[in-house]
């Protein structure tokens, strides 16, 4: 069964600290993996998109890694800011049928 | 602002009714996607259109249908509404239909079924 699991479910960190969010998937055949940031009540915003051949991608203070062999991805946030408080969602696309599989997200709270 | 617009912002209706949600993609984008986000199920992919044609189908119920009209805006029709259909409905657009294109999400329509 095609599934995407994220951990932790929620995370509280101090402003300025780094953190890493995890995404494990069983989607096959794999096409690409995306990380989105979603503020409460708003549409998701794309952070990174990685295909099979990419194992690292950065977008400012956000760095995503992908290990296609172990089917794991992580999103590392450096020097967190209060505005990083949001839900971070991992989405994996399958080549077959152009399907998208969503994780349930990690809720990040950055406190001063 | 992503450039994707959705109307209405909020919609309150009763069980058994039918509603239409509308989406205008970013200028130049040919592909439109619809997603449902509920508290218990998270985000789910419903359906994708590319240049007027259905391209991919996800967990879309038979009571739901969609279309993309010649000017490329899209409508999601929800009928025989049930309490469980209450959710945020997002539309997203991308330039082409290939699945690694970046998708830009609209602000969503919040549907409440009473």
Describe the structure.
The complex is a heterodimer of chains A (112) and B (114). Helices cover 0% and strands 60% of the residues of chain A. With 112 residues, chain A is mainly β. In chain A, the strands form 2 sheets. In chain A, strands 2, 4, 5, 9, 10 and 11 form a 6-stranded mixed beta sheet that branches. In chain A, strands 1-3-8-7-6 form a 5-stranded antiparallel beta sheet, with no helix packed on it. In chain A, strand 9 (86-94) and strand 10 form a beta hairpin. Chain A is globular, with a radius of gyration of 13 Å. With 114 residues, chain B is an all-beta fold. Helices cover 0% and strands 53% of the residues of chain B. Chain B contains no helices and 11 strands. Chain B has strands at residues 5-7, 10-13, 19-24, 31-38, 42-50, 53-57, 64-68, 74-78, 87-94, 104-105, 109-113. The relative contact order of chain B is 0.33. Classes of the chains: A mainly beta (112), B mainly beta (114).
